[in-house]
Amino acid sequence: YEIYLHGMTGAVPRLPTDLTRLEELAERRLGPGPVGYVAGSAGTGSTADANRAALHRHRIVPRMLREVDARDLSVEVCGRALPAPLALAPVGVLSIMHPDAEPGAARAAAAQGVPYILSSASSTPMEEVAEAMGDGERWFQLYWAKDREVTRSFLQRAKAAGYTALFVTLDTPLLAWRPRDLDQAYLPFLHGVGTANYFTDPAFRAGLAKPVHEDPNAAVMHFLGMFADPAKTWPDLAFLRENWDGPIVLKGILHPQDALRAAEAGMDGVVVSNHGGRQVAGSVAAADALPRVVEAAADRLTVLFDSGIRTGDDIFKALALGAKSVLVGRPYAYGLGLDGQAGVEHVIRCLLAELDLTLALSGHSRPDTLTADDLIKESV
Ligand code: FNR
């Protein structure tokens, strides 16, 4: 109601409620470096465009007269009851966007009751972010380092800091060809304390010839050398399973066979994602990959979704296609850049309010009653 009451009081929200307008606003206010980092996609941006187009092609078929006065957005994800089917995706180096950085995003998520997935490439050490989260749901995203000791150290630190679920990102064994970053010579990991999780890590520091502050360039090179590892294969997951006793979710799954392999490896869930179109140019749109992965996962895996979510109706569509919850990336990064923690809260509130209204107006009171039958897919 608050959004409509603004009309009575004349109080205009500080940021637009159409979240697709945040990028343009950020471009004007924050400059090309930070916005290029967030907006940037692989190649010509065809995958990011395809993500939006695929969601757009699915259209909701509303139902009438279905008693939708009492609504409940809660869902269960990997055994945890969550108030809504939304989480903040891991986004690295948020100090580029705003001094509130990861602690600001974490506080916003906790205040709005949605989980925050902290990136391995956080500009703030994971222990500090955990504190900022208070009672909020703490999830940790792992870029699976080449060095086992560093990975083990990350897992131990994350556990000690109260992170419950581990999201292992598989689609970034190398950084993709990203023209905006290349053309601007803007390498986010070089940004200040861009890799604080690594630079504060005892196992990482043990591999450096000189302390970070004495030779930061060598530290960055060391980081790039171990950041991820294109030589890994499915059997390597056993190491993570042995070293993490909570839920493990594989992020970046698009092929149904990979979902089957995830289940066989004892994983708890997958995120159907193409990294927001930042990794494989020309990749299948995430929403088009979702139904086949959901089918392969059956009851064995929790399936989450990201890449292209900008509105409440996008969330509705992803849930109707079988996702249990969605993650959102760029919109909250822009919200943070434009208005710090308050900007992230604005983004979460807009998405949840619009989802709630879309559910009600389409004849649903709960996310878990949605099925593919509530959508039709337009032919191109
Ligand atoms: C990301 N993403 C990402 N993923 C991850 O697992 N670890 C990370 O550190 C990052 N960092 C990152 C930085 C920036 C600037 C962006 C935009 C994205 C990917 C992210 O988690 C998510 O998959 C996408 O952002 C989802 O797509 P949308 O919502 O941005 O369209």
Structure description:
There is one protein chain. By secondary structure, this protein is of the alpha/beta class. The chain has a single domain, classed as TIM Barrel (Alpha-Beta Barrel). The chain is 43% helix and 12% strand. The protein has helices at 2-9, 22-30, 32-39, 46-57, 101-112, 126-133, 148-160, 179-184, 196-199, 202-206, 216-226, 237-243, 256-264, 286-297, 312-320, 330-361, and strands at residues 58-60, 75-77, 80-82, 86-88, 116-118, 138-142, 165-169, 248-253, 269-272, 302-305, 325-328, 375-377. The strands form three sheets. It has an eight-stranded parallel sheet with strand order 4-11-10-9-8-7-6-5. A two-stranded antiparallel ribbon has the order 1-12. Strand 8, helix 13 (256-264) and strand 9 form a beta-alpha-beta unit. The two termini are 36 Å apart. Residues 37-38, 89-92, 119, 121, 141, 169, 251, 273, 275-276, 278, 306-309, 328-330, 333 line the site of ligand FNR.
